[in-house]
Amino acid sequence: MTFPHLQLVQLSRPSTIPKPVIELIVDGHQVTVPEGTTILGACQKLGIEIPTLCWLETLAPVNVCRVCVVEVEGARVLAPACSRTVEPGMVVQTRSERVNLTRKLVLEMLASSTDLSTAPGLAEMMTEYGAQPERFGACETVAQPVLVDNDLYIRDYAKCILCYKCVEACGEDHQNTFAIAVAGRGFHAHISTEFAVDLPTSACVYCGNCIAVCPTGALMSKREWDLRQEGNWNESKQTSTDTVCPFCGVGCTLTLHVQDGEIVKATSPLDNDITIGNLCIKGRFGWQHVQNGRSATQMAADAAVPA
């Protein structure tokens, strides 16, 4: 039996044609990478370390921190390695005198006006490039009180370097909530909710994905902030364990960070196919039920009380 009114539809398959390859030279080493690869990607293939602040492999590059700049032979200005794609015959220098000076100045200007005390790896980076932010004096361009308007996370914008990561994670790169954006211009540029309303009355859904991508600690879970204020936050004493979130059937991987027998933070691996480092409010903040809302110190104190 035939059905002349029906037409066969040929399903398309992903193209298996390999991308053209590009040859270039980085710091005197020849490397071949697929077309469309960034300079940063070529450097990673060679094992050459490039410092970054605003770049993350799960986010679209926004080219704002400028610490990843490299020198491309024949170019007038330094190129951001995180977004500049490679070209045939390109000759790149990642640690030239011009590059090192630029990175040093960027770090000095950031540290002269921003509190970088909780930014992982920044102290070592400052030492590596010989940055001396005190040369610029004590600028107070972003000094402001910590915003504590909810029980889940705090916003300490005195530590914000305007890397845009939180905006991208809240926006079209991941969450699509668009609860925050960059407001103002020049020295007055800052991260803000719509009409600068408090977080509980904003569009925020408390997924905490902005916290996960923040490179300086400007966004931090309330429990971590409390422990830091008490002087009890100690990452050297913390252990981490991967498990599966129990709240729904999606199967998100949770990395639980434990200190002194207490869960103090929940994250998710960036290379996890399901989460790509993202979680919802339950996954990131809903682990208190494990201890009935009590810390390990409280539980120990309760156990010591005679019956």
Q: Which short descriptors sum up this protein?
A:
18% strand, 3-stranded antiparallel β-sheet, 5-stranded mixed β-sheet, globular, single chain, 8 helices, N-terminal domain of TfIIb, Ubiquitin-like (UB roll), alpha+beta, 307 residues, 21% helix
User: Can you tell me the CATH topology of the largest domain?
Assistant: N-terminal domain of TfIIb
Run of helices and strands: EEHEEEHHEHEEHEHEEEHH
Rounded average pLDDT: 90
Bulk shape: globular
| Helix proportion | 10-25%
Identify the CATH architecture of the largest domain: Single Sheet
Please state the structural category. Answer: alpha+beta
CATH class identity of the largest domain: Mainly Beta
Number of H- or I-type helical stretches:
8
Alpha-carbon Rg, integer: 23 Å
CA distance, first residue to last residue: 84 Å
By DSSP, the count of extended strands is 12
- Main β-sheet description: 5 strands, mixed
The fraction of residues in strands falls at 15-25%
Query: What is the domain total for the residues?
Result: 3
How are strands sequenced across the largest beta sheet? 2-1-5-3-4
* Low-pLDDT segments: none
User: CATH superfamily name of the largest domain?
Assistant: ADC-like domains
